Amino acid sequence: MSRTVYVNGQYVPEEDAKISVFDRGFLFADGVYEVTSVLGGKLIDFAAHATRLERSLGELQMESPVAKDELLEIHRELVRANDITDGLIYLQITRGAADRDFAFPENATPTIVLFTQSKPGLANSPAAQTGIKVISIEDQRWGRRDIKTVQLLYPSMGKMMAKAAGADDAWMVEDGHVTEGTSNNAYIVKGNTIITRHLGNEILHGITRAAVLAFAREAQMKVEERAFTIDEALQADEAFITSASSFVMPVVEIDGTGIGNGEPGSVAQRLREIYLDESLKKAV
Ligand code: PDD
Question: Which of 1, 114, 221, 227 is deepest in the core (most CB within 10 A)?
Answer without folding.
Answer: 114
